[in-house]
Amino acid sequence: MAKPVSIEVWNPHGKYRVVSTKPMPGTRWINLLMEQDCRVEICTQKKTILSVEDIIALIGDKCDGVIGQLTEDWGETLFSALSRAGGKAFSNMAVGYNNVDVNAANKYGVAIGNTPGVLTETTAELAASLSVSAARRIVEADEFMRAGLYDGWLPNLFVGNLLKGQTVGVIGAGRIGSAYARMMVEGFKMNLIYYDLYQATRLEKFVTAYAEFLKANGEQPVTWKRAASMEEVLREADVISLHPILDKTTYHLVNKERLAIMKKEAVLVNCSRGPVIDEVALVEHLKQNPMFRVGLDVFEDEPYMKPGLADLKNAIVVPHIASASKWTREGMATLAALNVLGKIKGYPIWSDPNQVEPFLNENAPPPAASPSIVNAKALGLPVSRL
Ligand SMILES: NC(=O)c1ccc[n+]([C@@H]2O[C@H](COP(=O)([O-])OP(=O)(O)OC[C@H]3O[C@@H](n4cnc5c(N)ncnc54)[C@H](O)[C@@H]3O)[C@@H](O)[C@H]2O)c1
Ligand SMILES: O=C(O)[C@H](O)CO
């Protein structure tokens, strides 16, 4: 039997019981739920990653919906517990939902929400920051200064890579991959090569138009290419950023063999999910190739790093903060709450989960719809006509 968990309660007499497994930024999400007759219970347990047993205790005997986190294992056990408690909806406060067994949710008729769009630019900005920081050795240089080692300008001090005119490679050119590509192409005048299962038409159009603009101004135009294979990107690009979803097809997408075909001075950035890279192979590659650099926001066995990674100067490591801007995190909380609320209230599903702005406007009530339910089709949920 799991120990009781500590909770904070809002609107104790609300008709519907909604549980959030973590305190989330902002108060709009709480207010929106309370306004619609929800009693909101927030787990305040001082434990970063809740176990399945902790969450079962939180769900209790009656629970209409749960807002959860990407660190939690939402599978058969939790969906059956939620269903027994009368629950109809679960939403991750994240766009990625590789921690959720959607088939198990379908079996119990539980709608699964995620939070796309609101974190696209914030995440792409961190990927761009890691790219520049790795290319220009910013973290190493900062540590050097703080250690009191700087005793004057030197021609060879922390020499890194120029981005302008080099090639940026994007693997997974969806929402975030495309936003990142635009930042690197427009901001640093890099050429683009990308690999995705689908054609990124809007991205291609953007780069074409930007190239024409540069040409008209007498500057060298940028170029783009959709690669036929991932290997082509790895071979040709100087900076490579990974932005696919994590599934069976992307697990260890970057492995020992693929690292070996990359340029010796390439920069590799990962703001997707840790297991997309074989981290043991990466540590070995970094040791053998000191001019190869990485910027990592995510790790294979989060919160842990593979042995040796933390000692390497050619690795920049940050703790899964790519979506951590105030506006984005508050927006993620709002979207997650509205996903759960929408299902409880029997609202339809928003027709385009890429266009979630109407839900984020603080000056107007949100549309009567769930912003993004990933198993809407499987559950036969109606789509909003708004
Ligand atoms: N580090 C963070 O804090 C953070 C923040 C946001 C998102 N993410 C991760 O980023 C992922 C992408 O988010 P998004 O909003 O851009 O999603 P998206 O669905 O818009 O983009 C994912 C892209 O990956 C492509 N893809 C899928 N399988 C592929 C394969 N085998 N090879 C190449 N491409 C493949 C898809 O076609 C799609 O274009 C999320 O699933 C999440 O895991 C991480
Ligand atoms: O998938 C996501 O949304 C991230 O990992 C957290 O923002």
TrEMBL record:
GO terms for biological process: oxidative photosynthetic carbon pathway. It is found in: Peroxisome. One of its GO terms (cellular component) is peroxisome. It holds the Pfam family 2-Hacid_dh_C. Residues 130-322 form the D-isomer specific 2-hydroxyacid dehydrogenase NAD-binding domain. The keyword NAD applies. Pathway: Photosynthesis; photorespiration; 3-phospho-D-glycerate from glycine: step 3/4. PROSITE patterns: D_2_HYDROXYACID_DH_1. Keywords: Glycolate pathway, NAD, Oxidoreductase, Peroxisome, Photorespiration. It is an enzyme of class 1 (oxidoreductase). This is glycerate dehydrogenase. It comes from Prunus dulcis (Almond). The lineage of its organism: Eukaryota, Viridiplantae, Streptophyta, Embryophyta, Tracheophyta.
